[in-house]
Design a protein that fits this description.
It is built from 10 helices and no strands. With about 210 residues, the protein is an all-alpha fold. Helix 1 packs across helix 2, helix 4 packs parallel to helix 7 and helix 5 crosses helix 6.
């Protein structure tokens, strides 16, 4: 008779432990999105996760920096998967830039809590810089993939950009601010905002 094997460890943890960690991470994302980073405590996260004690969080994460590190990794990975799936389908670098911008708005539309949580994490690491959060800051604020896209577009002769890192920072800053403005005032539909920003930045990338 076939017997189901016992739970095997994943990175030294059982599947049950992995599931609990994932539950805590998702609850942290929801708490950050709803309450902001200043009010996101282990107690608040416990309420979202329906946990009986903050000790259950401490069992899986040594402290808030470790938890934020995993939250950031989860959000960035999810956004990256969505972005890559759209960008790789494009044959031209202009198409890839359009897909990059569109994927940002797609992510905000599909995962609004994740997008807001990442903004809160970015705000936290800017307001309270510390060595413990250095890697969180690098991940939350990174524009590396966009810089690579722009640089490759230049080498291919499609783009004419004097300083790709500066343009990458400008693009990402515009995306973040436009979405935040949209959340506060709902001045336009996300697809309209995506089209307008796409037009602006593809013109910048193609200008001599």
């Amino acid at each position: 008779m076939y017997r189901k094997p016992p739970s095997s460890p994943v990175h030294g943890r059982t599947f049950t432990q992995e599931a609990r960690r994932a539950q805590i991470v998702e609850a942290t994302i929801e708490t950050l999105a709803e309450m902001g980073h200043t009010k996101t405590s282990f107690t608040a996260i416990c309420k979202h996760a329906n946990l009986s004690s903050t000790g259950l969080i401490s069992y899986h994460f040594a402290g808030k920096p470790q938890l934020l590190r995993e939250v950031t990794r989860t959000i960035v990975a999810r956004a990256g998967t969505l972005r890559t799936s759209r960008v790789v389908r494009e044959a031209t670098y202009r198409g890839k830039l359009v897909a990059y911008i569109a994927s940002y708005f797609d992510f905000v539309d599909r995962y609004p809590a994740h997008a807001r949580a990442l903004v809160e994490i970015a705000a936290l690491v800017r307001e309270r810089p510390s060595a413990e959060l250095d890697d969180v800051a690098r991940s939350a604020l990174s524009v590396e993939s966009l810089v690579t896209l722009l640089e490759e577009g230049c080498r291919a002769g499609e783009f004419r950009i004097a300083d790709p890192p500066v343009l990458a920072l400008t693009v990402q800053g515009a995306l973040d601010n436009v979405v935040r403005h949209h959340e506060l005032f709902a001045v336009a539909e996300l697809d309209h905002l995506a089209r307008e920003l796409t037009e602006i930045f593809t013109r910048c990338a193609l200008s001599p």
